[in-house]
What does this fold into?
Amino acid sequence: MTDNNVIKLWALIVAAGRGKRFGGGIPKQYFPLAGKPILRYSVETLSSHPAVDNVSVVINAEDQPLYMKAIEGLMVTPSIIGDSERQGSVYNGLETIASRTTPDHRPDFVLIHDAARPFVSNELIDRLVEELVAGQGVIPVLPVTDSLKFSKDDRKFETVSRSNLWRSQTPQIFSFSEILTAHQRFSDSAMTDDYAVAEAAEMMLGTIRGDELNIKVTTSEDLGTAERILGITGHQESVSETVVGTGFDAHRFGPGTDITLCGITIPFKQGLVGHSDADVGLHALTDAILGALAEGDIGEHFASSDSRWKNMASERFLFFAKELVHKRGARIGNVDVTLICESPKLALYRSAMTEKIAETLELRNDRVSVKATTTDRLGFTGRSEGIAAQAIVTLYLPTSGDISFD
It folds into this structure.
């Protein structure tokens, strides 16, 4: 066993990514998980572990305000500016640590961890450190247990043997001097993790069994899994609460040759009359989101008396509501919009409407429902005097206090 009192171990957390697959108004590492930024979980664990001497975080230069709020009160070294790619960010981090320390005070080992893995445990860190006997690095791995399929065109699939396949995790620990040299040698390569860099440099590497709870938050669905893990492990009894909002809007027909519904322009013998583009679908949906947040209605934020919103595309209003959701540390579960009219017939446009809403709200298509119905010729919609819409939305709000990223 390596003597923890002798080695110098420096933790380097990589948090410069943009998290495009996650969606949301802010990078995923700053998105609240049970009221606390995802990044903060791993910083708290690593900065308090007795084997870790220092913690540095590699960030995107644009994220400095988010970062300072996320690590408030924690003992970390000044932030390091990263690169557009993960490998470049780690390289920058290693070079910066070397430049900030004298040869006598440089770490013996560096622990490299992804900010998107909030549940790194003290037990996992202990086992990694214990494995540092004679090798130059050690990583946690888990066997692949799911059946694997391969496809070239997403239609025909072939079964792939999962024998001898393993999933790697972070944190990964390496000899500081050796992994720095390896990154210097292979700085132009595009490798997925530091083990690949170390392997290319023919370093002596070992493995330990990883931790199934040490998940990586990549998509918004992973955030739900992370919340469930917090509940299972007893960190918090209720990590989020579900709230629901509803919205309704109606506009009458007037002169024109097309209408806009749920962001899609539809040719028609008339237009819809309104101060903006009169998109009843997006107006109802915007009101539903504002209602779930108890933020009033669309008229309070975009008054019809304000010339700035004249002929404005209603997608702008929906985007505003989505940003309010993110600033509250909430996330959208699903939305359901019902359009009510005798004509035009909307069946051919529903798919495009669904995709437009999903794109604007950064949701999967299967979290968005758009339906059309009539009133059997009853009322103003039944007389073809206009179109109405109603919407409902489900939001998940953090329960441990409001989080604001203003």
Remarks:
- The CA atoms of residues 212 and 338 lie 41 Å apart.
